[in-house]
Design goal:
Blueprint: H1 4-18, H2 24-36, H3 40-53, H4 58-70, H5 74-87, H6 92-104, H7 108-121, H8 126-139, H9 142-155, H10 160-172, H11 176-189, H12 195-210, H13 214-231, H14 233-237, H15 242-255, E1 273-278, H16 285-293, E2 298-302, H17 308-314, H18 319-328, H19 334-350, E3 359-363, H20 371-377, E4 382-387, H21 390-399, H22 414-434, E5 438-443, H23 444-449, H24 451-462, H25 473-480, H26 487-491, H27 505-508, H28 512-521
Parallel strand pairs: 1-3, 1-4, 2-3, 4-5
Protein backbone atom coordinates (compact mmCIF):
# COMPACT_ATOMS: atom_id res chain seq x y z
CA UNK A 1 0.00 0.00 0.00
CA UNK A 2 2.95 2.30 -0.63
CA UNK A 3 2.54 4.89 -3.35
CA UNK A 4 5.51 5.43 -5.69
CA UNK A 5 5.73 9.03 -4.46
CA UNK A 6 5.98 7.97 -0.81
CA UNK A 7 8.51 5.26 -1.64
CA UNK A 8 10.71 7.78 -3.49
CA UNK A 9 10.42 10.37 -0.70
CA UNK A 10 11.26 7.72 1.92
CA UNK A 11 14.38 6.72 -0.01
CA UNK A 12 15.55 10.33 -0.10
CA UNK A 13 14.84 10.86 3.59
CA UNK A 14 16.60 7.65 4.55
CA UNK A 15 19.66 8.77 2.57
CA UNK A 16 19.60 12.17 4.27
CA UNK A 17 19.45 10.58 7.72
CA UNK A 18 22.24 8.16 6.85
CA UNK A 19 24.38 11.13 5.78
CA UNK A 20 23.71 12.87 9.08
CA UNK A 21 21.59 15.54 7.41
CA UNK A 22 18.11 14.30 8.27
CA UNK A 23 15.65 16.52 10.11
CA UNK A 24 12.17 16.16 11.55
CA UNK A 25 10.58 16.19 8.12
CA UNK A 26 12.71 13.22 7.03
CA UNK A 27 11.70 11.26 10.11
CA UNK A 28 8.05 12.14 9.47
CA UNK A 29 8.31 10.77 5.91
CA UNK A 30 9.84 7.56 7.19
CA UNK A 31 7.07 7.34 9.81
CA UNK A 32 4.44 7.50 7.07
CA UNK A 33 6.40 4.84 5.18
CA UNK A 34 6.46 2.63 8.29
CA UNK A 35 2.70 3.08 8.62
CA UNK A 36 2.23 2.06 4.98
CA UNK A 37 4.15 -1.20 5.48
CA UNK A 38 2.20 -1.96 8.67
CA UNK A 39 4.85 -1.23 11.30
CA UNK A 40 2.85 0.91 13.75
CA UNK A 41 5.45 0.72 16.52
CA UNK A 42 8.18 2.07 14.24
CA UNK A 43 5.84 4.77 12.92
CA UNK A 44 5.15 6.00 16.46
CA UNK A 45 8.86 5.99 17.28
CA UNK A 46 9.73 7.94 14.14
CA UNK A 47 6.99 10.51 14.75
CA UNK A 48 8.34 11.04 18.28
CA UNK A 49 11.81 11.69 16.86
CA UNK A 50 10.38 13.96 14.16
CA UNK A 51 8.59 16.18 16.65
CA UNK A 52 11.62 16.27 18.95
CA UNK A 53 13.84 17.39 16.08
CA UNK A 54 11.37 19.88 14.57
CA UNK A 55 8.72 20.81 17.13
CA UNK A 56 7.70 23.95 15.22
CA UNK A 57 7.54 22.41 11.73
CA UNK A 58 3.92 22.50 10.49
CA UNK A 59 4.64 19.84 7.88
CA UNK A 60 5.65 17.39 10.62
CA UNK A 61 2.47 18.09 12.55
CA UNK A 62 0.42 17.76 9.36
CA UNK A 63 2.04 14.41 8.58
CA UNK A 64 1.23 13.30 12.11
CA UNK A 65 -2.38 14.45 11.64
CA UNK A 66 -2.63 12.39 8.44
CA UNK A 67 -1.29 9.31 10.23
CA UNK A 68 -3.75 9.76 13.10
CA UNK A 69 -6.67 10.17 10.69
CA UNK A 70 -5.77 7.04 8.77
CA UNK A 71 -5.52 5.04 11.97
CA UNK A 72 -8.94 6.21 13.18
CA UNK A 73 -7.74 8.65 15.88
CA UNK A 74 -9.66 11.63 14.59
CA UNK A 75 -9.71 13.83 17.69
CA UNK A 76 -5.92 13.51 18.07
CA UNK A 77 -5.50 14.16 14.35
CA UNK A 78 -7.60 17.31 14.52
CA UNK A 79 -5.51 18.57 17.43
CA UNK A 80 -2.33 17.99 15.40
CA UNK A 81 -3.75 19.79 12.35
CA UNK A 82 -4.90 22.71 14.49
CA UNK A 83 -1.43 22.92 16.05
CA UNK A 84 0.10 23.08 12.57
CA UNK A 85 -2.31 25.86 11.60
CA UNK A 86 -1.53 27.78 14.79
CA UNK A 87 2.14 27.70 13.80
CA UNK A 88 1.56 28.50 10.12
CA UNK A 89 -1.94 29.80 9.28
CA UNK A 90 -0.91 30.22 5.64
CA UNK A 91 0.15 26.56 5.20
CA UNK A 92 -2.48 25.04 2.84
CA UNK A 93 -1.59 21.38 3.50
CA UNK A 94 -2.60 21.74 7.15
CA UNK A 95 -6.00 23.14 6.13
CA UNK A 96 -6.41 20.27 3.65
CA UNK A 97 -5.66 17.69 6.31
CA UNK A 98 -8.00 19.44 8.72
CA UNK A 99 -10.73 19.18 6.09
CA UNK A 100 -10.05 15.48 5.58
CA UNK A 101 -10.26 14.80 9.33
CA UNK A 102 -13.47 16.78 9.79
CA UNK A 103 -15.01 15.09 6.77
CA UNK A 104 -14.10 11.66 8.13
CA UNK A 105 -15.77 12.60 11.40
CA UNK A 106 -19.01 13.73 9.74
CA UNK A 107 -18.51 17.51 10.14
CA UNK A 108 -19.04 18.22 6.46
CA UNK A 109 -19.71 21.95 6.72
CA UNK A 110 -16.53 22.60 8.70
CA UNK A 111 -14.58 20.32 6.39
CA UNK A 112 -15.73 22.29 3.38
CA UNK A 113 -14.69 25.56 5.04
CA UNK A 114 -11.21 24.15 5.69
CA UNK A 115 -10.85 23.06 2.06
CA UNK A 116 -11.99 26.51 0.90
CA UNK A 117 -9.37 28.12 3.12
CA UNK A 118 -6.73 25.86 1.52
CA UNK A 119 -7.87 26.93 -1.97
CA UNK A 120 -7.66 30.59 -0.99
CA UNK A 121 -4.01 29.93 -0.19
CA UNK A 122 -3.34 27.64 -3.16
CA UNK A 123 -5.96 27.58 -5.96
CA UNK A 124 -4.18 24.59 -7.53
CA UNK A 125 -4.53 22.35 -4.45
CA UNK A 126 -5.98 19.16 -5.94
CA UNK A 127 -6.97 17.49 -2.62
CA UNK A 128 -8.96 20.58 -1.63
CA UNK A 129 -10.86 20.64 -4.94
CA UNK A 130 -11.48 16.90 -4.64
CA UNK A 131 -12.58 17.22 -1.02
CA UNK A 132 -15.12 19.93 -1.79
CA UNK A 133 -16.36 17.93 -4.80
CA UNK A 134 -16.92 14.87 -2.59
CA UNK A 135 -18.84 16.84 0.05
CA UNK A 136 -20.90 18.71 -2.54
CA UNK A 137 -21.83 15.48 -4.34
CA UNK A 138 -22.87 13.91 -1.06
CA UNK A 139 -25.05 16.93 -0.21
CA UNK A 140 -26.61 17.22 -3.66
CA UNK A 141 -24.80 20.45 -4.59
CA UNK A 142 -24.39 19.39 -8.22
CA UNK A 143 -22.76 22.51 -9.62
CA UNK A 144 -20.06 22.75 -6.94
CA UNK A 145 -19.36 19.03 -7.19
CA UNK A 146 -18.95 19.25 -10.94
CA UNK A 147 -16.85 22.42 -10.89
CA UNK A 148 -14.41 21.23 -8.25
CA UNK A 149 -14.33 17.62 -9.47
CA UNK A 150 -13.50 18.62 -13.02
CA UNK A 151 -10.87 21.10 -11.80
CA UNK A 152 -9.21 18.40 -9.70
CA UNK A 153 -9.18 15.87 -12.57
CA UNK A 154 -7.77 18.47 -14.95
CA UNK A 155 -4.85 18.87 -12.55
CA UNK A 156 -4.59 15.17 -11.65
CA UNK A 157 -6.45 12.74 -13.97
CA UNK A 158 -5.92 9.84 -11.55
CA UNK A 159 -7.49 11.53 -8.52
CA UNK A 160 -9.94 8.93 -7.23
CA UNK A 161 -11.79 11.27 -4.85
CA UNK A 162 -12.67 13.72 -7.61
CA UNK A 163 -13.59 10.92 -10.02
CA UNK A 164 -15.84 9.42 -7.36
CA UNK A 165 -17.63 12.74 -6.87
CA UNK A 166 -18.35 12.99 -10.59
CA UNK A 167 -19.42 9.33 -10.67
CA UNK A 168 -21.81 10.03 -7.80
CA UNK A 169 -23.43 12.78 -9.89
CA UNK A 170 -23.72 10.40 -12.83
CA UNK A 171 -25.28 7.65 -10.71
CA UNK A 172 -27.73 10.11 -9.14
CA UNK A 173 -28.68 11.40 -12.60
CA UNK A 174 -29.50 7.88 -13.82
CA UNK A 175 -26.37 7.64 -15.99
CA UNK A 176 -24.56 4.60 -14.56
CA UNK A 177 -22.59 3.89 -17.72
CA UNK A 178 -21.06 7.37 -17.48
CA UNK A 179 -20.10 6.55 -13.89
CA UNK A 180 -18.41 3.33 -15.05
CA UNK A 181 -16.54 5.23 -17.76
CA UNK A 182 -15.29 7.76 -15.21
CA UNK A 183 -14.28 5.21 -12.57
CA UNK A 184 -12.66 2.32 -14.40
CA UNK A 185 -9.59 4.21 -15.73
CA UNK A 186 -8.96 5.75 -12.30
CA UNK A 187 -9.26 2.40 -10.53
CA UNK A 188 -6.84 0.86 -13.03
CA UNK A 189 -4.34 3.63 -12.28
CA UNK A 190 -4.28 2.66 -8.58
CA UNK A 191 -2.60 -0.71 -8.17
CA UNK A 192 -2.56 -0.78 -4.34
CA UNK A 193 -5.37 -0.59 -1.77
CA UNK A 194 -6.12 2.98 -0.76
CA UNK A 195 -8.91 5.24 0.48
CA UNK A 196 -9.58 6.68 -2.96
CA UNK A 197 -9.57 3.32 -4.74
CA UNK A 198 -11.89 1.83 -2.12
CA UNK A 199 -14.35 4.70 -2.59
CA UNK A 200 -14.23 4.36 -6.38
CA UNK A 201 -14.79 0.59 -6.22
CA UNK A 202 -17.89 1.02 -4.08
CA UNK A 203 -19.36 3.52 -6.52
CA UNK A 204 -18.46 1.21 -9.41
CA UNK A 205 -20.53 -1.45 -7.65
CA UNK A 206 -23.46 0.98 -7.46
CA UNK A 207 -23.16 1.78 -11.17
CA UNK A 208 -22.96 -1.86 -12.22
CA UNK A 209 -25.98 -2.61 -10.02
CA UNK A 210 -27.97 0.08 -11.82
CA UNK A 211 -26.91 -1.47 -15.13
CA UNK A 212 -28.22 -4.87 -14.01
CA UNK A 213 -24.73 -6.39 -13.86
CA UNK A 214 -25.14 -7.99 -10.44
CA UNK A 215 -22.09 -10.26 -10.70
CA UNK A 216 -19.98 -7.25 -11.62
CA UNK A 217 -21.51 -5.23 -8.80
CA UNK A 218 -20.78 -7.96 -6.26
CA UNK A 219 -17.17 -8.17 -7.48
CA UNK A 220 -16.73 -4.40 -7.13
CA UNK A 221 -18.30 -4.31 -3.65
CA UNK A 222 -16.10 -7.21 -2.55
CA UNK A 223 -12.96 -5.47 -3.85
CA UNK A 224 -14.04 -2.25 -2.11
CA UNK A 225 -14.40 -4.03 1.23
CA UNK A 226 -11.13 -5.93 0.74
CA UNK A 227 -9.38 -2.57 0.29
CA UNK A 228 -11.14 -1.22 3.40
CA UNK A 229 -9.93 -4.23 5.41
CA UNK A 230 -6.36 -3.89 4.08
CA UNK A 231 -6.20 -0.16 4.75
CA UNK A 232 -7.28 -0.61 8.36
CA UNK A 233 -5.57 -3.93 9.08
CA UNK A 234 -3.02 -2.37 11.41
CA UNK A 235 -5.62 -0.36 13.33
CA UNK A 236 -7.82 -3.47 13.65
CA UNK A 237 -5.02 -5.72 14.87
CA UNK A 238 -5.25 -4.82 18.55
CA UNK A 239 -8.99 -4.06 18.67
CA UNK A 240 -11.65 -6.40 19.97
CA UNK A 241 -14.06 -7.15 17.15
CA UNK A 242 -17.34 -5.41 17.84
CA UNK A 243 -19.27 -8.66 17.44
CA UNK A 244 -17.08 -10.12 20.22
CA UNK A 245 -17.73 -7.05 22.39
CA UNK A 246 -21.47 -7.48 21.88
CA UNK A 247 -21.32 -11.14 22.86
CA UNK A 248 -19.31 -10.27 25.99
CA UNK A 249 -21.95 -7.68 26.98
CA UNK A 250 -24.69 -10.24 26.39
CA UNK A 251 -22.90 -12.93 28.37
CA UNK A 252 -22.42 -10.66 31.37
CA UNK A 253 -25.94 -9.24 31.19
CA UNK A 254 -27.52 -12.70 31.01
CA UNK A 255 -25.36 -13.94 33.90
CA UNK A 256 -26.62 -11.15 36.19
CA UNK A 257 -29.45 -11.76 38.64
CA UNK A 258 -32.93 -11.16 37.30
CA UNK A 259 -33.51 -7.42 37.11
CA UNK A 260 -36.72 -6.04 38.58
CA UNK A 261 -38.15 -2.52 38.27
CA UNK A 262 -37.31 -1.93 41.93
CA UNK A 263 -33.62 -2.06 40.99
CA UNK A 264 -34.03 1.17 39.02
CA UNK A 265 -34.12 4.72 40.24
CA UNK A 266 -36.36 7.12 38.31
CA UNK A 267 -34.63 9.48 35.92
CA UNK A 268 -34.10 13.04 37.19
CA UNK A 269 -36.10 15.86 35.61
CA UNK A 270 -34.80 16.85 32.20
CA UNK A 271 -36.04 16.84 28.63
CA UNK A 272 -39.70 15.81 28.98
CA UNK A 273 -39.59 13.14 26.26
CA UNK A 274 -36.32 11.21 26.10
CA UNK A 275 -36.06 8.67 23.28
CA UNK A 276 -33.38 6.21 22.23
CA UNK A 277 -33.65 5.19 18.57
CA UNK A 278 -31.67 2.06 17.72
CA UNK A 279 -31.71 -1.16 15.72
CA UNK A 280 -28.80 -2.05 13.45
CA UNK A 281 -26.87 0.01 10.88
CA UNK A 282 -28.91 0.25 7.65
CA UNK A 283 -32.19 -0.58 9.39
CA UNK A 284 -33.86 2.83 8.84
CA UNK A 285 -32.83 4.73 11.96
CA UNK A 286 -31.65 7.82 10.06
CA UNK A 287 -34.97 8.05 8.24
CA UNK A 288 -37.03 7.87 11.44
CA UNK A 289 -34.68 10.27 13.23
CA UNK A 290 -35.25 12.96 10.61
CA UNK A 291 -38.99 12.30 10.61
CA UNK A 292 -39.17 12.91 14.36
CA UNK A 293 -36.75 15.86 14.20
CA UNK A 294 -39.25 17.55 11.88
CA UNK A 295 -41.76 17.91 14.75
CA UNK A 296 -41.85 21.27 16.58
CA UNK A 297 -39.66 21.34 19.66
CA UNK A 298 -37.96 18.03 18.92
CA UNK A 299 -34.16 17.84 18.77
CA UNK A 300 -32.10 14.86 17.67
CA UNK A 301 -28.49 13.82 17.89
CA UNK A 302 -26.96 11.52 15.34
CA UNK A 303 -24.65 8.67 16.39
CA UNK A 304 -22.72 10.39 19.17
CA UNK A 305 -20.98 8.59 22.08
CA UNK A 306 -23.33 10.08 24.67
CA UNK A 307 -22.82 7.19 27.12
CA UNK A 308 -19.03 7.40 27.05
CA UNK A 309 -18.61 7.75 30.83
CA UNK A 310 -20.51 4.52 31.48
CA UNK A 311 -18.74 2.89 28.54
CA UNK A 312 -15.34 3.69 30.01
CA UNK A 313 -16.35 2.24 33.35
CA UNK A 314 -17.98 -0.92 32.00
CA UNK A 315 -16.79 -1.78 28.51
CA UNK A 316 -13.01 -1.42 28.62
CA UNK A 317 -10.64 -4.35 28.83
CA UNK A 318 -10.82 -7.94 27.66
CA UNK A 319 -13.78 -10.31 27.33
CA UNK A 320 -13.67 -11.44 30.97
CA UNK A 321 -13.52 -7.85 32.28
CA UNK A 322 -16.55 -6.81 30.26
CA UNK A 323 -18.54 -9.88 31.31
CA UNK A 324 -17.73 -9.16 34.95
CA UNK A 325 -18.63 -5.45 34.68
CA UNK A 326 -21.96 -6.17 33.00
CA UNK A 327 -22.78 -8.80 35.62
CA UNK A 328 -22.30 -6.15 38.34
CA UNK A 329 -24.28 -3.42 36.57
CA UNK A 330 -27.59 -4.14 38.33
CA UNK A 331 -26.01 -3.63 41.75
CA UNK A 332 -24.31 -0.29 41.00
CA UNK A 333 -25.13 2.34 43.59
CA UNK A 334 -27.06 5.58 43.14
CA UNK A 335 -24.05 7.96 43.24
CA UNK A 336 -22.28 6.05 40.47
CA UNK A 337 -25.40 6.00 38.34
CA UNK A 338 -25.94 9.72 38.91
CA UNK A 339 -22.39 10.43 37.83
CA UNK A 340 -22.98 8.56 34.57
CA UNK A 341 -26.32 10.32 34.01
CA UNK A 342 -24.77 13.73 34.57
CA UNK A 343 -21.96 12.91 32.15
CA UNK A 344 -24.54 11.79 29.59
CA UNK A 345 -26.53 15.04 29.71
CA UNK A 346 -23.34 17.10 29.73
CA UNK A 347 -22.30 15.36 26.51
CA UNK A 348 -25.74 15.86 24.97
CA UNK A 349 -25.97 19.58 25.72
CA UNK A 350 -22.34 20.16 24.72
CA UNK A 351 -23.34 18.80 21.30
CA UNK A 352 -25.73 21.71 20.84
CA UNK A 353 -29.01 20.19 22.00
CA UNK A 354 -31.33 22.80 23.56
CA UNK A 355 -32.10 21.87 27.20
CA UNK A 356 -35.60 23.34 26.77
CA UNK A 357 -36.46 20.98 23.87
CA UNK A 358 -39.81 19.20 24.03
CA UNK A 359 -38.19 15.90 23.16
CA UNK A 360 -34.68 14.59 22.59
CA UNK A 361 -33.99 11.74 20.16
CA UNK A 362 -30.68 9.95 20.79
CA UNK A 363 -30.24 8.09 17.50
CA UNK A 364 -27.59 5.44 17.24
CA UNK A 365 -28.34 2.05 15.64
CA UNK A 366 -25.63 0.42 17.77
CA UNK A 367 -26.99 1.66 21.10
CA UNK A 368 -28.79 -1.65 21.31
CA UNK A 369 -25.47 -2.77 22.75
CA UNK A 370 -26.11 -0.32 25.62
CA UNK A 371 -29.68 -1.31 26.45
CA UNK A 372 -28.72 -2.68 29.91
CA UNK A 373 -27.00 0.65 30.65
CA UNK A 374 -29.87 2.69 29.22
CA UNK A 375 -32.41 0.81 31.32
CA UNK A 376 -30.30 1.30 34.45
CA UNK A 377 -29.77 5.03 33.91
CA UNK A 378 -32.99 6.10 32.18
CA UNK A 379 -35.85 3.79 33.10
CA UNK A 380 -38.41 6.40 32.03
CA UNK A 381 -36.98 6.79 28.52
CA UNK A 382 -38.77 5.44 25.46
CA UNK A 383 -36.90 3.06 23.17
CA UNK A 384 -37.66 2.74 19.45
CA UNK A 385 -36.21 -0.39 17.84
CA UNK A 386 -36.06 -0.32 14.04
CA UNK A 387 -36.65 -3.63 12.29
CA UNK A 388 -35.93 -4.40 8.65
CA UNK A 389 -35.61 -7.60 6.65
CA UNK A 390 -32.32 -9.11 7.92
CA UNK A 391 -31.25 -9.89 4.36
CA UNK A 392 -31.63 -6.24 3.36
CA UNK A 393 -29.77 -5.10 6.49
CA UNK A 394 -26.81 -7.44 6.01
CA UNK A 395 -26.57 -6.87 2.27
CA UNK A 396 -26.76 -3.09 2.73
CA UNK A 397 -24.08 -3.09 5.46
CA UNK A 398 -21.80 -5.10 3.19
CA UNK A 399 -22.21 -2.90 0.12
CA UNK A 400 -22.24 0.47 1.92
CA UNK A 401 -19.07 2.46 2.49
CA UNK A 402 -18.67 3.60 6.09
CA UNK A 403 -16.07 5.53 8.01
CA UNK A 404 -13.74 3.27 9.98
CA UNK A 405 -15.01 2.20 13.39
CA UNK A 406 -14.77 -1.03 15.34
CA UNK A 407 -18.26 -1.81 14.05
CA UNK A 408 -17.66 -1.18 10.35
CA UNK A 409 -14.56 -3.35 10.46
CA UNK A 410 -17.07 -6.20 10.92
CA UNK A 411 -18.77 -5.38 7.60
CA UNK A 412 -15.96 -6.37 5.23
CA UNK A 413 -17.40 -9.80 4.35
CA UNK A 414 -20.96 -11.08 4.26
CA UNK A 415 -20.03 -13.75 6.80
CA UNK A 416 -18.68 -11.25 9.32
CA UNK A 417 -21.62 -8.90 8.71
CA UNK A 418 -24.11 -11.69 9.40
CA UNK A 419 -22.26 -12.64 12.60
CA UNK A 420 -22.39 -9.02 13.75
CA UNK A 421 -26.12 -8.83 13.00
CA UNK A 422 -26.77 -12.06 14.87
CA UNK A 423 -24.81 -10.86 17.91
CA UNK A 424 -26.63 -7.52 18.13
CA UNK A 425 -30.08 -9.01 17.55
CA UNK A 426 -29.40 -11.64 20.23
CA UNK A 427 -28.40 -9.00 22.79
CA UNK A 428 -31.33 -6.76 21.84
CA UNK A 429 -33.72 -9.69 22.11
CA UNK A 430 -32.43 -10.62 25.57
CA UNK A 431 -32.62 -7.00 26.73
CA UNK A 432 -36.21 -6.56 25.54
CA UNK A 433 -37.19 -9.78 27.32
CA UNK A 434 -35.39 -9.17 30.62
CA UNK A 435 -35.43 -5.41 31.17
CA UNK A 436 -38.35 -3.18 32.21
CA UNK A 437 -38.00 -1.06 29.08
CA UNK A 438 -40.66 1.10 27.44
CA UNK A 439 -39.95 -0.17 23.93
CA UNK A 440 -41.69 -0.18 20.56
CA UNK A 441 -40.63 -1.97 17.38
CA UNK A 442 -40.93 0.03 14.16
CA UNK A 443 -40.75 -1.92 10.91
CA UNK A 444 -39.03 -0.16 8.04
CA UNK A 445 -41.37 -1.58 5.39
CA UNK A 446 -44.42 -0.27 7.28
CA UNK A 447 -42.80 3.13 7.74
CA UNK A 448 -42.16 3.61 4.01
CA UNK A 449 -45.42 2.02 2.81
CA UNK A 450 -47.89 3.31 5.41
CA UNK A 451 -46.06 6.41 6.49
CA UNK A 452 -48.77 8.45 8.17
CA UNK A 453 -50.28 5.62 10.20
CA UNK A 454 -46.87 4.41 11.36
CA UNK A 455 -45.60 7.86 12.32
CA UNK A 456 -48.84 8.53 14.22
CA UNK A 457 -48.28 5.32 16.22
CA UNK A 458 -44.70 6.33 16.97
CA UNK A 459 -45.72 9.82 18.11
CA UNK A 460 -48.42 8.40 20.36
CA UNK A 461 -45.93 5.99 21.92
CA UNK A 462 -43.42 8.79 22.59
CA UNK A 463 -46.10 11.16 23.86
CA UNK A 464 -45.85 13.74 21.08
CA UNK A 465 -48.56 15.29 18.97
CA UNK A 466 -48.39 14.19 15.34
CA UNK A 467 -47.98 16.96 12.79
CA UNK A 468 -47.88 17.17 9.01
CA UNK A 469 -44.36 18.54 9.53
CA UNK A 470 -43.17 14.91 9.50
CA UNK A 471 -43.99 14.81 5.78
CA UNK A 472 -41.18 17.30 5.20
CA UNK A 473 -38.43 15.19 6.76
CA UNK A 474 -36.30 15.44 3.61
CA UNK A 475 -36.18 19.23 4.10
CA UNK A 476 -35.24 18.66 7.74
CA UNK A 477 -32.40 16.38 6.65
CA UNK A 478 -31.02 19.00 4.28
CA UNK A 479 -31.20 21.72 6.93
CA UNK A 480 -29.68 19.61 9.74
CA UNK A 481 -27.14 17.81 7.61
CA UNK A 482 -26.84 14.03 7.71
CA UNK A 483 -23.52 12.43 8.61
CA UNK A 484 -24.52 8.78 8.25
CA UNK A 485 -24.26 6.62 5.15
CA UNK A 486 -28.02 7.10 4.57
CA UNK A 487 -27.62 10.72 3.48
CA UNK A 488 -28.46 10.21 -0.21
CA UNK A 489 -31.64 8.23 0.50
CA UNK A 490 -32.97 10.62 3.16
CA UNK A 491 -32.24 13.69 1.02
CA UNK A 492 -34.49 12.45 -1.78
CA UNK A 493 -37.55 11.84 0.40
CA UNK A 494 -39.52 8.69 1.12
CA UNK A 495 -37.70 5.80 -0.48
CA UNK A 496 -38.72 2.13 -0.39
CA UNK A 497 -35.49 0.18 0.01
CA UNK A 498 -37.09 -3.19 0.62
CA UNK A 499 -35.95 -6.42 -1.08
CA UNK A 500 -32.67 -4.98 -2.35
CA UNK A 501 -31.06 -8.28 -1.41
CA UNK A 502 -32.93 -10.34 -3.99
CA UNK A 503 -30.51 -9.94 -6.96
CA UNK A 504 -27.71 -11.06 -4.64
CA UNK A 505 -29.50 -14.08 -3.12
CA UNK A 506 -26.87 -16.57 -4.33
CA UNK A 507 -24.08 -14.68 -2.55
CA UNK A 508 -26.17 -14.47 0.61
CA UNK A 509 -26.86 -18.22 0.60
CA UNK A 510 -23.85 -19.14 2.82
CA UNK A 511 -25.08 -16.81 5.62
CA UNK A 512 -28.74 -17.82 5.48
CA UNK A 513 -28.42 -20.32 8.38
CA UNK A 514 -27.40 -17.36 10.58
CA UNK A 515 -30.14 -15.05 9.29
CA UNK A 516 -33.06 -17.45 8.90
CA UNK A 517 -34.10 -17.48 12.59
CA UNK A 518 -34.30 -13.66 12.58
CA UNK A 519 -36.12 -13.60 9.23
CA UNK A 520 -38.78 -15.83 10.76
CA UNK A 521 -38.87 -14.07 14.15
CA UNK A 522 -39.37 -10.63 12.59
CA UNK A 523 -41.99 -11.88 10.10
CA UNK A 524 -40.01 -11.65 6.85
CA UNK A 525 -40.18 -15.33 5.87
Amino acid sequence: MISPELAAAAAQSEAAIAAGQGDGYDHMILALHAQAVGDAALAEELFTRAQALSPDDPSVLTGRAKYLRETGRLSEGLAAADAAIALAPEYPDAWIERGAILGAGGSQRSARESYQRALALNPQAVPAHAGIAAIAAREGDTQAARDHGERALALDPANAIAASALATLANDAGQPQSAVDILEPVISAHTQPGFGRSLALGLLGDARHKLGDHAGAYAAYSACKADFAAIHAEAAKDRMRQSDLIRAIDEGFCAAPAIRPANFEPSPPGVPHHVFLLGHPRSGTTLLENVLASLPGVEALEERPTLIAADQALLMGDHASIVDAMTRLASETGPVLQQWRDAYWEKVFASGINPSATAFIDMDPLKGTRLPIIARLFPDARVLVMRRDPRDVVWSCFKTQFAMTSGTLDFTTLEDTARHYDALMTLTDHALERLPLHAMEVHYHRLVRDFEATTREVCQFIGLEWSEAVLRFDRTARQRGVATASVSQVRRGLYDGTRQWEPYARWLEPVMPVLQPWIEKFGYA
